[in-house]
């Protein structure tokens, strides 16, 4: 089947989509957007997190056909058109929150949504918002640092 | 495989009548795992995301009619006052990403003994609105769970909503697992005080082939509260009564040994959760009574 939806602001169509295929597979294998990672395919790790109509979801658990006509934002949509990193992305770099990087795209999407919703999150809020994202490398401390840094910079910018 | 995308509830019912083997997909947080791992290869997937009313709720009198696909996140955010037990249970489900998609209709569809909505639904009380082109059936929640991952839906039926009594007293939900997020319950317990009826209801998860109520424990406690005049005098529940209640809850369970825990651990944990949640809810009830007594007459 053909599935048409908006990805990072652009209308995209994927053809020959198998009916049981996930949104994650369509993004990575059919639309050339490999930013969202496939680690577990069962909702446990969050590395495939994207926003569906603004809401963070595991794209591995959204059937491709369910995305028809809807709005998807992936990690590729966070940076500016000229490649300028978003506040959250820059903070991850500066805080050393990236090691192998496999968990990073999902964490960026989740953290970006948190700060949009709650610009001054408590540590509890950050832990809760990122509780669906697993990282095997960092031990999470630098990730928490990065989100705090991004929140502080967002505050300064306002 | 065919992907059916009904644009309305009537279309969804017609599609289910025409293809009773079609697998409905709402949040997909159970269905997609099965498809990704090749555990299920249905001939038809029936997408319910375009049926807007399934994601809405309404209140009429003392009932909340909760659409089958209202995501857990919305329940936590908007229905904490009306459905406190379910809101607490919703907050323990998986992670934000899963709670943004999954809902009670899917939990009921899967009917896993470990589903977290079930103990709260059993304790709060309510009915499942099951609809087909043939008409509507209201299935009492107590009759809905038939076996491990088996429910009372007919092949042509879909869940439109659950009808839940608004809380008239404190409710609690408690769950044992290895961390706060992303945990399938080792076992779970829900309790609801119903001061209007002077009864207490319970729900047990992950400790029997289906979610169950601890009926003997409920009856014992209801009688003990009555006898002591506790609903009126607002005294604490005597420790011996709380202990007996906890033992009866543990005895109601019929758990197994599995990777998540042993049967005897589950029984023990249930007794602890029953005693604690009774304590929390009763203290809250007493506090509210106290406040009411201290209100000057209008
Ligand atoms: C990583 C992960 C963690 C999880 N953790 C928990 C947890 O902690 N606690 C918990 O309880 N669950 C958990 N789950 C399971 C799942 O999220 C819940 O069961 C959820 O409620 C399913 O809702 P859904 O809308 O996603 O269901 P779907 O996957 O869309 O559907 C589930 C079942 O219900 C049927 N169905 C859906 N809607 C209807 C309807 N309207 N009428 C008839 N049938 C219908 C489907 O055909 C299917 O059989 C977890 C899942 C994942 C992937
Ligand atoms: S790949 Fe989707 S949650 Fe792990
Ligand atoms: S940096 Fe390697 S998994 Fe997180």
Quick summary:
Chain A: GO terms for molecular function: 2 iron, 2 sulfur cluster binding; metal ion binding; oxidoreductase activity. The complex is a heterodimer of chains A (158) and B (298). Chain A contains 5 helices and 5 strands.
Molecular structure report:
The complex is a heterodimer of chains A (about 160) and B (about 300). Chain A has 2 domains: about 80 residues, Roll (Ubiquitin-like (UB roll)), CATH 3.10.20; about 70 residues, Orthogonal Bundle (DNA polymerase, domain 1), CATH 1.10.150.120. Chain A is built from 5 helices and 5 strands, in the order ββαβββαααα. Chain A has a 5-stranded mixed sheet, with helices on both faces. In chain A, helix 2 packs across helix 5. The relative contact order of chain A is 0.16. The mean pLDDT of chain A is about 95. Chain B has a domain of about 150 residues: Uridine Diphospho-n-acetylenolpyruvylglucosamine Reductase, domain 3 (2-Layer Sandwich). Chain B has a 5-stranded antiparallel sheet. In chain B, strands 1-3-2 form a 3-stranded parallel sheet, covered by helices on one side. Chain B has a 3-stranded antiparallel sheet with strand order 11-12-13. The longest helix of chain B is centred in the last third of the chain and has 32 residues. The radius of gyration of chain B is 20 Å and the shape is globular. The model of chain B has no long low-confidence stretch (mean pLDDT about 95). Classes of the chains: A alpha+beta (about 160), B alpha+beta (about 300). The structure holds flavin-adenine dinucleotide and FE2/S2 (inorganic) cluster (2 copies). The site of one FE2/S2 (inorganic) cluster has 12 residues of chain A, from loops. Flavin-adenine dinucleotide sits at the interface of chains B and A.
